[in-house]
Amino acid sequence: MQSDPDLHRSLRERVVGEHGVIMVVGAANTGKTTLARLLLTDALEAGRSVAFVDADVGISAVGPPACVGLRWIDSPDALSSLEHADELRFVGSTQPQGVVLPHVVATADLVAVAARRADFVVLDTTGVVSGVVGQTLKYHLTELCKPALVIAMQRGGELEPTIGMLRRFLGTRVAKAQPHDSLTPSSPLEQRAARVKGFAAALASPLQRWRVQLRVFAPTLPEGFDLDKLEGMLVGVQDGEGRCLGLGALEFTDGVLRVATRHGDQMKGLRLGSMRIDLDTFETVPIRLRELIFGT
């Protein structure tokens, strides 16, 4: 959907004067990222110092899927190249189920980084909004990121339980908005293709292969662990200071474990994700990390 300069105009005129974090929540295909871009544009034109934190790990606008990304918005050029992340935090999955804790920690960490430099931070969130997982995720994101305002994009009343919870328990200010009539929802196949494209951009050839030892992993792998189980596992390549440099994929051949990545020269450790990835097709399969490591 193209950005309509008049889309949500009255809401945006109120929001541009806010300071702090503006968190946008809503189910898939409600126009969250479109609104986020418009808010960033408005704030930049108003002379604000601006940052964008993209916590939608499935359809990422900033950085690759399975990561939370930060982009400093210091010029219109930055708005046209959001995919180039200035900082990343690895979550390891494209869905929050099973990774709520790392998802919340990664997002809160990057929001804190953004807030140290920018006085207007837009936080885009995943489209999982209902049920225990969706409500738990949004509650803890709000609790730790402390948004000045939450913008709830909803078609009907699907967000009312979450809105009520945030207002009741955290005293959160919430503004409601409806998706624009011209919004064309993306199909599951289109969303899948977008994830594949994102992984391909992060892991396309040429990749270097680096030999790795068990001690470099988080979580730590037990002695005697069957390394063959790690074949194809998605990993976050870490720099030793909490930052994710990018993605990698594990390969186990001829009794040797290697990581295929573009970031091995700065690698200090590897965080195991909850997915396997095929480096030929960039298709992924979810994996329960606890079952992988402990068999339970």
3D architecture notes:
- With 296 residues, the protein is of the alpha/beta class.
- The chain is 30% helix and 26% strand.
- The chain folds into two domains: 9-177, 3-Layer(aba) Sandwich (Rossmann fold), CATH 3.40.50; 201-294, no CATH class.
- The protein has a seven-stranded mixed beta sheet with strand order 4-3-2-5-1-6-7, sandwiched between helices.
- The chain contains eight helices and 14 strands.
- The model has no long low-confidence stretch (mean pLDDT 94).
- Helix 5 (131-145) packs parallel to helix 6.
- A hairpin with a 2-residue loop joins strand 11 and strand 12 (256-261).
Secondary-structure blueprint:
Elements: H1 9-15, E1 20-26, H2 32-45, E2 50-54, E3 67-73, H3 76-79, E4 87-90, H4 100-115, E5 120-124, H5 131-145, E6 149-153, H6 160-170, E7 174-177, H7 188-203, E8 208-211, E9 217-218, E10 233-238, E11 244-253, E12 256-261, E13 269-277, E14 284-286, H8 289-294
Helix pairs in contact: 4-5, 5-6
Largest sheet: 7 strands, mixed
Q: List the domain count as a whole number.
A: 2
Give the strand order, joined by hyphens, for the main sheet.
Answer: 4-3-2-5-1-6-7
How large is the count of helical segments?
8
Radius of gyration based on Cα positions: 19 Å
Strand content: 25-35%
Which residues form runs of ≥5 with pLDDT under 50? none
**Alpha-carbon distance between the termini?**
44 Å
Give the assembly state of these chains. Answer: single chain
Reported CATH architecture of the largest domain: 3-Layer(aba) Sandwich
